[in-house]
Amino acid sequence: MQSVNQKTLSNPVSFEGVGLHSGQKSKVTINPGKEDQGIIFKRIDLKKNNLIEANYKNVTSAKLCTTLENKNGVKVSTVEHLLAALYFSDIDNAVIEINSNEVPIMDGSAKDFLEILKNTKLSSLSKKRKYLKVIDKIELIDGARKISIEPDDNSLEVDFKLNYENQIIGKQRNKINFSNNNSDDIINSRTFCLFQDIEKIKKAGLAKGGSLDNAIVVDQNKVLNKEGLRNDKEFVNHKILDLVGDFLLSGYRIVGKIKCEQGGHELTNLFLRKMLDQTKLLNVFELNNIFISKRLKSNSFVKLAVNA
Ligand SMILES: [Zn+2]
């Protein structure tokens, strides 16, 4: 996933499904994007002010999902799993048309999105992809919730710790290096909730589209989904999936070791705001065709710009 040039889709792909929180059916078409455009959502159910840039600064709510909002108050929510799928599909630029305010939840993971995105080839654009690397540790601590990033030569690594009182979820930890480890368990891991919280969530007007088809529901000592779990660490793996999707809102491919404890969408967004403010600790890189093969030997990135 370390490409020199930016990439987009060669043809549009579409899918339909139900929003986890709204319960509304919607259709999404992912169209090719222009270079340096990034990921843009387009609410085609609205005539004007309908573009919403997938940028961390546009996150206005991150309670149970990530919601993006433009300056005219037009929103799109539950974007995180689709953004993670774009990360894993190696797509930098796309215009995502949607006819409602929420991305369909599909099966609760990024698996269906990846399957759909396999139906299009990628095209390489002339501009180079931008990678971001930290030169020193940046950390955010909020009580028991912690998140940090430390320098790494050439990969993104995520080390996530989860600690639930529930006996099924309990303490889970997983560390994934996205250059060296297989990402399938991350991609396939579904969103989850505690059975005891469902009534409260529904009273708040959320999870109207939630079901055992799109979320793992955990009672005190059992998983209520008949098929059980998809992998041993599905809970923490889903948190890693969320984090990867939310980090794409930085506008860069991140190179570094991220450690997170008890985090979620909200902490990740606070952290992105803190991290991207510290420009003296950030390096923005492009890769170069000649050096990408050398890099595999020397294990270091080619630095083209400092303090961007
Ligand atoms: Zn999620």
Relevant terms:
lpxc deacetylase, domain 1, 7 helices, binds zinc ion, 5-stranded mixed sheet, disordered C terminus, Ribosomal Protein S5, domain 2, 8-stranded mixed sheet, 308 residues, globular, 20 strands, alpha+beta, single chain, 22% helix
Please, what is the oligomeric state? single chain
Cα separation of the termini: 22 Å
Q: Could you name the CATH homologous superfamily of the largest domain?
A: lpxc deacetylase, domain 2
Elements, N to C (H/E)? EEEEEEEEHEHEEEEEEHEHEHEHEHE
CATH fold-type name of the largest domain = lpxc deacetylase, domain 1
Strand content: 25-35%
Radius of gyration: 19 Å
Overall pLDDT: 92
Count every beta strand, where a strand is a DSSP E run of 2 or more residues.
Answer: 20
Report the sheet with the most strands, covering strand number, pairing sense and barrel closure: 8 strands, mixed
CATH architecture identity of the largest domain: 2-Layer Sandwich
Bound molecules: zinc ion
Task: Please explain how this structure is put together.
The chain has 308 residues and is α+β, with helices and mostly antiparallel strands. 22% of the residues lie in helices and 32% in strands. It has helices at residues 80-88, 111-117, 184-188, 195-203, 234-247, 265-277, 289-298; strands at 5-9, 13-18, 25-32, 39-43, 51-53, 59-61, 67-69, 75-77, 94-98, 122-128, 131-134, 138-142, 145-150, 156-163, 171-177, 192-194, 216-218, 253-261, 282-285, 305-306. Strand 4 (39-43) and strand 5 form a beta hairpin. Helix 1 packs across helix 5 and helix 5 (234-247) runs parallel beside helix 6. It is globular, with a radius of gyration of 19 Å. The protein starts with a strand and ends with a strand. Residues 296-308 have low confidence and may be disordered. The structure holds zinc ion (ZN).
